[in-house]
Amino acid sequence: MEKEEPIEGAIKVKLLFFGPLAEKLNQRSIELSLLYGTTINQIIERFDLKSMVSDGLVVALDGDIGVDFDTEVHDSSEIAFLPPVSGG
């Protein structure tokens, strides 16, 4: 079996989804190849999560919770999408 040649300028990241997000996407994690310079906001748009942002979606990048959505992701980054917490 031949090895796939890496795409120049591509990075590989891991996305983690929790709670209703995991249910909506029917998976808890995805490994994804993206172009260098991709931002968290572009990932949010790609997975149609804008409505969850207005409801309080929080993103953690490599364990750093609450990062700015304009932050660029890097090769081997782990991006966790945390749904808003509700309770009484």
TrEMBL record:
<dbReference type="InterPro" id="IPR003749">
    <property type="entry name" value="ThiS/MoaD-like"/>
</dbReference>
<dbReference type="InterPro" id="IPR012675">
    <property type="entry name" value="Beta-grasp_dom_sf"/>
</dbReference>
<protein>
    <recommendedName>
        <fullName>Molybdopterin synthase sulfur carrier subunit</fullName>
    </recommendedName>
</protein>
<dbReference type="Pfam" id="PF02597">
    <property type="entry name" value="ThiS"/>
</dbReference>
<dbReference type="InterPro" id="IPR016155">
    <property type="entry name" value="Mopterin_synth/thiamin_S_b"/>
</dbReference>
